[in-house]
Design brief:
Elements lengths: L8 E12 L2 E9 L9 E2 L2 E3 L7 H6 E2 L5 H15 L1 E4 L2 E4 L5 H11 L3 E2 L4 E7 L8 E9 L13 E7 L1 H9 L7 H11 L4 H8 L7 E2 L18
Parallel strand pairs: 1-10, 5-8, 9-12
Antiparallel strand pairs: 1-2, 1-4, 2-3, 2-11, 6-7, 9-10
């Protein structure tokens, strides 16, 4: 009997970066020890939900038509998880809430989320044999200043602004746990000197160009280093 392939669920994540005295830093969050991503340190993000294609979202999010739902999901998850609203004029505090409640509050407050500020870096699809699969777009955005971060305590246990190389060191020593996609994007960021350099390196990425890791005979994943676009 042929086992049907498990469809990959659309998802989006945001690498929020800033220039610091010691070099480029990226915002990372740590998930609570439950569920598929339990205990992992990741970039803010999550699954694309039906609301990300709704009329309410269209009234709140300025985006790009072809991947508008992914950009909406990335911005919504960023606001839900960190309390940061990425707007056309900068980063503002987002009202508390999730899903439709959050979007309604944003609309009532006159806050618009700006999907055009997101630069696509890669599209990552989980291997077909995996028990849980995601089709994830990784976006990059540089910020010069941010309000105080307010994490969603129901989903997260902490956050940090960290240099990519320092985050990789924390992973290699077992201080934090990460998935291969996170590690691969940190390696990519570690080559970037500042926001301008990172965004320039990402120019030209296409969401139709897949990054799909393969499994070795022992079950391990082939390491991937993202190239310059």
């Amino acid at each position: 009997m042929t086992v049907p392939k498990l469809a990959a669920r659309p998802a989006a994540t945001v690498m929020l970066i800033r220039d610091a005295d010691g070099g480029l830093e990226v915002l990372m969050v740590r998930r609570r020890a439950r569920g598929f991503f339990g205990g992992l340190t990741v970039f803010p993000g999550g699954a694309v939900d039906p609301i990300d294609s709704s009329e309410l979202t269209a009234s709140v999010v300025v985006g790009r038509p072809r991947d508008a739902a992914y950009r909406a999901a990335a911005l919504r998850e960023l606001a839900e998880e960190t309390g940061l609203a990425l707007t056309p004029v900068g980063v503002s505090p987002a009202p508390p809430g999730r899903g439709a409640g959050l979007l309604s509050e944003l609309e009532a407050s006159g806050i618009r989320l700006d999907g055009t500020r997101l630069t696509l870096v890669s599209r990552w699809v989980t291997p077909e044999a995996a028990p849980t699969r995601f089709d994830t777009l990784f976006y990059l955005v540089g910020v010069t200043d941010t309000p105080e971060i307010r994490i969603d305590a129901d989903e997260l246990v902490g956050h940090m602004w960290v240099g990519p190389s320092a985050a990789l060191d924390m992973h290699s020593t077992g201080e934090v746990e990460m998935f291969l996609p996170t590690v691969s994007h940190l390696r990519w960021l570690a080559w970037r000197s500042d926001i301008e350099d990172a965004i320039a390196a990402a120019q030209g990425a296409d969401d139709r160009a897949l990054v799909q890791p393969r499994r070795m005979g022992d079950g391990s994943l082939v390491p991937i280093h993202l190239p310059d676009h």
